[in-house]
Amino acid sequence: MGNPSAISLRVLGIAREVLAETVRVSWILFRITIPVVIVVKVLDELGAIRYVANALGPVMELVGLPGSMGIVWATAMLTNLYGAMMAFVSLAPQTHLTVAQVTILTSMMLVAHNLPVELRVAQKAGTRLIVMAVIRIGGALAFGGLLNLVYSQTDLLQHESVLQWQPPPMDASLGAWAIGQGKNLVRIFVMVLALMALIRLLRRLRVMDLVERLLAPVLRILGMTRAATDITVVGMVLGLAYGGGLIIRQVSSGQIPKRDVFFSLALMGLCHSLIEDTLVMALLGGHLSGILFGRILFALVCTFALVRLCARLPAAAFDRYLCGH
Prior knowledge:
Blueprint: H1 4-45, H2 48-62, H3 70-78, H4 81-95, H5 99-111, H6 115-124, H7 129-154, H8 174-204, H9 207-222, H10 229-238, H11 240-252, H12 258-270, H13 276-283, H14 288-310, H15 315-323
Helix pairs in contact: 1-6, 1-8, 1-11, 2-3, 3-4, 5-7, 5-13, 5-14, 6-7, 6-11, 7-12, 8-11, 10-11, 10-12, 12-14
């Protein structure tokens, strides 16, 4: 066994390195999140969500949902899933949605939510904001339409959904909002700290090497190299909001090819936060056939198609129109 004092010093040194790295990564993300959250709050107070919801009413009917659900998806896209949950709970008792309809709505929310923050993260990582917006919003609509087609043609999940979750009373004051946002920042910092420590541990145990080998065939089919493994795993498991700082930092190292960055972020945009967000939408009554299995399959197929489509683009055009550099 080694010297206990030397081991303690080594552990302390590693802890300091992880903490310093966490501070750097979190600062990258906070510089994006804080201004965007404030702007979105101002727009919300000015009624922007209501305007977007009114425009989405006819669109929701195209995917088999009542137009009133536009406010739920608008809230998800402009704020986050938790705000959309509150909107859904207030409308659900009057709408009598089927399990299929709830699954369609929650699946669309999972693909396109928290867009002001997550699109800015993708932009800072090196992609065109407008292109990622089209992928996220267009992907959500296409996925919702496909689910509606499958469920209606097969007569699956057509029984009425029963809401099992009721939110606690909420304080709508500005002070409560500020405190809530502060808690979110602390939560992000803790998540990043845990992620940095976990990645370091997995690297040391060579688990990440195993993950890379397992994912290599999938990434190869999608047209990506093993260099994109880390950011893809982080985004798909934790999400763009939590993993955004780490993703930007890894991309800025210049070790990941631009095409890998773009396709990885496209894949993550369509399918991320597989644990937390999936569980949250299941609380509203979303079925796993859509919010988990269907979402993964849809994201993989779309990314595969995107890779094949972009293969026809010259490198200069790819960099100019999709990567923004």
